Predict the structure.
Amino acid sequence: MTTDLLNTPKTSTGKSLRTEEMVVNMGPQHPSTHGVLRLEVVLDGEIVVDVIPHLGYLHRCFEKHCEHMTSYQQVIPYVDRMDYVAAMTNEFAFVTAAEKLLKIEVPERVHYIRIIMAELQRIASHLIAIGTFGIDMGAFTPFLYYFRDREKILDLFEMTCGARLLYNYMWIGGLSHDLPPNFIEKTKQFIVEFKKSMTEVNDLLNYNEIFIKRTAKVGVLPRDLAINYACSGPMLRASGVDFDLRRDDPYTLYDRFDWNVVVGKGEVGVVGDVWNRNMVRQNEMWESLKIIEQAVNSLPEGDVQKAIPKRIRPVPGDAYGRVEGPRGELGFYIVAEENVTPFRVKGRAPAFVNLSVINEISKGAMLADLVAIIGSIDIVLGEVDR
Amino acid sequence: MENFIALLSDPIVAAILIAFIPLVFILVYALVVLYGEMKMAAHIQNRLAYMENGWHGTLQPFADMLKLLQKEDIIPAAADKLFFIMAPYLVFVGTYASFAVLPFSSGFIGSNIDLGVFYLVAVSSLVVVGLLMSGWASNNKWSLFGALRSAAQIVSYEIPGVLAILGVVMVLGSMNLQEMTKLQDGGIQNWLILGGNFPLGQKLALVPFMVILFFIYLLSSMAEVNRTPFDLPEAESELVQGYNTEYSGMKFAIFYLAEYANLFLVSAVVVTMFFGGWTSPFGSFMSGPVWSAFWFVAKGMFFVFFNVWLRWTLPRLRVDQLMYVSWKVLTPFALACVMAVGLIMVW
Amino acid sequence: MTALTTYFVDIYNSVHSAMVGMKITIGQMVSPTVTLQYPREKKPMPERVRNRLYMNFDDCIGCELCAKACPVDCIDIEVLKAPPTENLGETSTGQKKRIYVTKFDIDIAKCCYCGLCVYPCPTECLKMTDVYEFSEFDRHNLIYNFTTMTPADVESARAKVKVYDQEQAAKKAAAAAQAAAAKAAAAQAAQQTPAAPDAAQPSPAPKQEQGQNQNPPAPESGKEQQ
């Protein structure tokens, strides 16, 4: 908004002052953009006028790599590394798509174990999301409490498949290892300890008045905007849309367990604001604990490697398999031809799609709010850039 | 030998020597509180900090100090050189000069002036000038942001702080910090937070207002020092380091030192005004020039650690909420308390 | 609620939630820490852990299934098919080794620790151990050479293979010559009888000679794999 300073009458109000908008770069290296995300922010004082994200700083050509493998099973380590914070989810989505393509039915025990791993991974991913969101707000302590709990989950994973972060565990047609003998007892112990820790951090962070003041009524994502921009996961559910792939488009046996879909109710603030997204993630962890408890108590017997095919030679065709990941709908579209390697693997990353809404919801917010909004979208750049 | 004693009693030399004592204190205290803050933060977060150098890391602050001293002092090419270099020293001077009126013990005060608190508030406002200079001279949009926010914050929080001090000055009748402390001598019942050395009726009437004034001064002093929950100027996750971004080496060390010194300064003022300064809570037991220095430092360190505790617990406030707290919450309450205290004292 | 009530309720909530938070942090401060002081205290690794690769070279039969399974191509193998007359020994699982493995390099810097190479090995000679402290100062020291054949061994193996191939080729040539001679004898025998197929005689002989000249170079270029 510029005015010609020479020709305007000198008044005592600020209207004759020439103001300019400042373009600031929340550059690729910044403590609060959760990775190498570059945001070009146009500011009018402290108010954000426009936000333009620039991506691609972590692009690793993973989809191209998948076209040059010697087997479909070899794609699994690559798929792990897409969203490195929640690797089991990526594997789950890929094997769902591949099993659809190859028309493989897996035994029930495999379904149950996959559900347990996916829910444990959901908890681990939400722990990072809420913890780093706390750091962005200035509360440094809940992050460390949550990482202490995440260590326990990573110990469970290490006990099962040998790796802490990138598992290569879910194979097409089954799993790489069966559960070790003391897994069930350790999981039950973890559940008990974690419930106590979650209540503590809830009091420390979520219901803290300063935190509420920073996050309530900020970055409101209306319902129709969320649906139009194809948002999914906690972002969609916090805006009041009751949609969860685990219940509405079943890809495995989630209907055998008694659990609820967490939808934002606007308990504090407005439905669709940052506080609600955080609360949806927190409550989803409670629901995941319920599912894990029930699954662990009713695990069927069986051989987890029975249905793994010796050689994978698919019939030409395509398949799209999707799961409900911690960030939203994670899907893989595989195009196969008469070859050991896929012709094309496309990953539909939920963080990428959710990030597209940032321009709309941060108009009129202050710079400190922008940090809160980015933290609440829960992006992982590995997924956004692939 | 006689020449030496004559030299010492020369007023200027004596003044310089006396001025060194708070400086030495600040340097030693900075090392101690650096170690203490990191260890306390670590134990709050269920982890161990500093375990390598020395027993449980006690030599680590020396290592940090050596590291900062030998670091390269980088001045950005497009920075305003004179202001860039002057800024940290101005911030430090604003804090250090206020140490002159702090009553460290019953036998030692740097400068026993009648305007004690007034001088303190005035000189510590130099810090704002220093911060603005550092933000502007850094030639960095983020530093400028931090400096502007900081200036707005410090200036707004001086109002409730000064009103709280006004309330205390009205009750005790003197602006001289040494006088204020002497008036609270004689045991814990004479401390101003519990009503002061007055007849019982007046004392009981004063207690709630003194408590409120104590909280108001505590909050505004935290905002003056830029500590969480008011640390938006140096919000690590937004502005990288605020006005501190472009500083490295010795200048950064001076900023750091100035922040810790300021923290002790405001804790010491809280202690002097409300908690009896160097007086012992037991009356005449454990009092005397040396014991009173111990009490003063111990009480000051308690409030320093209270600040550290708050820093690692609470998230930070946004700029407009900070302003809201200052103008719409602290100032009305402070005004109301000052009026009430005035009525009680007159009545 | 009027604005005034909200105002006071807000203040009360702030102070109350701050005090709740402070109680939690102080409670955590006096509870024991969870830090393991590495490198003095190390966490015990579970048995399925996937860290550095180790290979028992005596058991390797040179099938190259691990190199094919690796998604990042970090295993580099060169083999030489040994002549049947050589005895390379047996693996610990009882399989007879028939292939010289002249080069078996694993670039552990490229390895993504997925474990896909461990499953296909028929003799289970490739394993993932629990060693995770193997940093080097020079990147090239991270290429692990597992072959126990020295360059002299490799040369002698190549020489042996060459000799064997030449023998095989000579044998084949001799066999072909014998077959040709047998055929010529049979043709001559047929010639003794009525001289009707006269024109057919000269044609077999030149063809055999051409065939003999072509055979010797072929085996050598085919069998030596680089």
User: Anything to note?
Assistant: The radius of gyration of chain B is 21 Å. Residues 98-116+150-238+251-346 of chain B form one domain.
